[in-house]
């Protein structure tokens, strides 16, 4: 799958940081959005969603995009606190202020918290805990389409990482239900996916549905392993850390040793969801 940037509405620009890797896919996606304000505001308001890691070249590209949008006020929005999304936020805020712009930083580890449903210009905040406890998404309705800026809650390819203790699978499944309702409420409008990593521009509906199905399939596999472990233990069902190894071996037998610590964190989140950790 490749980017379909022509599906993004006017006033939305996509930038990709050159930080590819197993967790970042082709790199962190940053979005520079010219916001529309019902009140008119006191100048041109631009949002920067996920400035990415500390990377001078990427920061310069963001600065150029903000300049091109003729912004006088900028709000830097973080979908969550991971370094590949917020690591460059402080330097960006400082650089923008150095150009005389009014800048606000929202959420992540150092910004002002979001309120679910609040409007920042014509961009709506959607609290989306699960991938991390502070995960948020944003929805923009413009030019007949809805754009879902999903951070790492929904990626452009592959599946999102929900790892204990910051990741919460129960919250994540609830967030997927919220996203399914969002897609359903859009009716005939297309909901375009603008993820934190991976290709941009897919229809969000089948991706969210695939994510839900994938999580349920994994949980069914974990339940099968737990049933086998319980049958072996009889009247003394195992709990907590003693279950992690058997579940990894039974449900993730194809992973290599280098991935085992990460998968163990995922399994702990699954066990916590099932009340076994």
Automatic annotation (TrEMBL):
Q: Where is the Metallo-beta-lactamase domain?
A: 27-197
Question: What is the recorded name of this protein?
Answer: MBL fold metallo-hydrolase
Q: What is one Pfam family matched by this protein?
A: Lactamase_B
């Amino acid at each position: 799958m490749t980017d379909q940037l022509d599906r993004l509405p006017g006033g939305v620009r996509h930038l990709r940081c050159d930080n590819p890797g197993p967790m970042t896919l082709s790199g962190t996606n940053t979005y520079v959005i010219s916001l529309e304000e019902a009140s008119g505001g006191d100048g041109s308001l631009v949002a920067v969603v996920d400035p990415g890691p500390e990377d001078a070249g990427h920061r310069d590209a963001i600065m150029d995009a903000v300049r091109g949008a003729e912004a006088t006020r900028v709000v830097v929005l973080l979908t969550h606190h991971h370094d590949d999304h917020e690591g460059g936020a402080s330097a960006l805020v400082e650089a923008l202020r150095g150009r005389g712009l009014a800048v606000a930083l929202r959420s992540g580890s150092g910004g002002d918290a979001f309120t679910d449903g609040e409007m920042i210009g014509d961009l709506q905040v959607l609290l989306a805990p699960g991938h991390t406890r502070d995960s948020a998404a944003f929805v923009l309705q413009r030019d007949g389409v809805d754009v879902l800026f999903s951070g790492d809650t929904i990626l452009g390819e592959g599946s999102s990482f929900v790892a204990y203790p910051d990741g919460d699978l129960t919250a994540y499944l609830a967030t997927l239900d919220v996203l399914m309702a969002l897609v359903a409420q859009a009716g005939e409008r297309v909901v375009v996916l603008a993820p934190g990593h991976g290709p941009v521009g897919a229809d969000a509906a089948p991706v969210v549905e695939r994510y839900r199905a994938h999580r349920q399939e994994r949980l069914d596999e974990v339940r099968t392993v737990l049933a086998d472990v319980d049958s072996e233990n009889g009247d003394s069902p195992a709990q907590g850390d003693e279950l992690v190894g058997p579940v990894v071996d039974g449900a993730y037998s194809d992973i290599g040793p280098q991935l085992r610590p990460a998968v163990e964190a995922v399994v702990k989140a699954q066990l916590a969801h099932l009340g076994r950790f």
